[in-house]
Task: inverse folding
């Protein structure tokens, strides 16, 4: 499966656009993503391990919140999108 | 080497650097860095040439960045982090203060939620000051209109162990042992009313950079001065058009001179008769209005980190406005010209004087 980084998250990962990795759940995918790009650790989660606000995670074309959040199951060929949520003004 | 003045201008949409030679007549603008992140504060460390910026971003969370090459490239610190089990989460940085020249690797930061952080590695990592955090009176701190933050870190000119912090809304705490212990420090003289200590909403507390023990403090209500050896804050509001405001600065050489921009306490913009910088040359005993060159009657606003001075002679004084302008004086605050206009809302101005 692949994780695609969008917008600001590419900058947080030194310009990386995509990471190919093995993961059975979204949580595992995020853990593997941080191992590949440690600079993302504090950009994805606060000091207590909570996912940050203004962060949208999609599995293929579905918002991960409707798939069980970080428990969302992943399969070969899935694409996880890490997206800065529309916010601000 | 020639002197250059570099203004680090934090805005609600990124960091700008505004540069001039020692004449301070023509300014060039670079930026924005990290737009659209709000930059609550940015500063220059004259000890090693580092720059620090409080990047208070929604995307990816707030973070502190540092630059070792005068802003060409920036690296991200490891975030300030409240300890496991804490009910608080680092939200944003309000102020970054380079340490004393005698403690070359130490940098301090104040954050929201209100807490003091110390870096011993030039801003790469940050440790919570537990002694301040453990103050029983912390339970009484409350947010001001802009949140509950620690924004002032005043380090004594001679002794790095003597320092004060200012909190909105939590008052002043003083340490004489480098932050190992703290004591509330809110006694005042000449005030109109007594208030419980923690309800002093400090807006800006400054230590004179050259004379030990001299302090200037802008509080939500009133301004105060302290002389060496004094243990109370002397009310010095008389002569100002209002008792409210944020922006404040001290003359880096003349220990009796300070500047502030009074605001109307209900409208939160410049007090009638419009924007003016008020200066004192007698430690706040009297105040003089300086508005030559400023737009007459303009209801401008300058916020907490909005004012600073360079180190040149005659002194340059600078302030930013919510309208996105930075005004510059190169005659010790007497007259003013725009250094740059039409930026986003200016949240902070820091003037670095650099040998280039």
Result:
């Amino acid at each position: 499966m692949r994780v695609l980084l969008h917008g600001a998250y590419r900058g947080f990962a030194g310009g990386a656009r995509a990471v190919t990795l093995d993961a059975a759940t979204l949580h595992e995918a995020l853990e593997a993503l941080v191992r590949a790009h440690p600079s993302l650790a504090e950009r994805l989660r606060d000091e207590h391990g909570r996912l940050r606000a203004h962060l949208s995670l999609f599995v293929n074309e579905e918002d991960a919140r409707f798939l069980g959040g970080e428990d969302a199951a992943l399969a070969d060929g899935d694409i996880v999108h890490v997206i800065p949520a529309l916010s601000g003004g | 080497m020639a002197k250059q003045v570099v203004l680090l201008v934090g805005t609600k949409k990124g960091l700008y650097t505004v540069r001039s030679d020692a004449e301070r007549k023509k300014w060039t603008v670079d930026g924005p860095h990290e737009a659209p992140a709000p930059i609550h504060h940015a500063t220059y460390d004259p000890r090693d040439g580092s720059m620090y910026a409080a990047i208070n971003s929604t995307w990816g969370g707030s973070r502190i960045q540092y630059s070792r090459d005068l802003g060409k490239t920036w690296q991200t610190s490891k975030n300030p982090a409240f300890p496991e089990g804490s009910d608080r989460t680092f939200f944003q940085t309000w102020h970054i203060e380079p340490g004393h020249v005698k403690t070359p690797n130490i940098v301090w930061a104040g954050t929201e939620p209100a807490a003091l952080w110390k870096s011993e590695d030039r801003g790469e990592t940050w440790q919570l000051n537990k002694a301040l955090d453990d103050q029983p009176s912390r339970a009484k701190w409350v947010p001001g209109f802009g949140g509950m933050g620690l924004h002032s870190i005043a380090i004594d000119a001679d002794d790095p162990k003597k320092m004060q912090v200012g909190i909105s809304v939590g008052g002043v705490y003083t340490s004489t042992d480098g932050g190992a212990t703290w004591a509330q420090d809110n006694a005042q003289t000449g005030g109109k009313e007594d208030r419980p200590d923690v309800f002093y909403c400090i807006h800006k507390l400054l230590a004179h950079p050259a004379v030990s023990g001299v302090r200037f403090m802008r509080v939500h209500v009133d301004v105060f001065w302290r002389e060496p050896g004094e243990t109370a804050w002397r009310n010095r509001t008389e002569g100002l058009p209002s008792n409210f405001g944020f922006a404040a600065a001290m003359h880096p050489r003349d220990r009796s001179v300070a500047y502030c921009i009074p605001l109307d306490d209900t409208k939160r913009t410049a007090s009638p008769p419009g924007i003016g910088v008020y200066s004192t040359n007698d430690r706040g005993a009297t105040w003089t209005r300086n508005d030559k060159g400023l737009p007459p009657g303009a209801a401008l606003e300058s916020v907490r980190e909005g004012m600073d001075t360079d180190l040149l002679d005659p002194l340059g004084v600078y302030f930013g406005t919510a309208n996105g302008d930075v005004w510059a004086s190169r005659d010790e605050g007497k007259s003013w010209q725009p250094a740059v206009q039409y930026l986003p809302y200016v949240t902070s101005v820091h003037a670095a004087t650099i040998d280039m």
Notes: The first helix of chain A runs from residue 8 to 12.
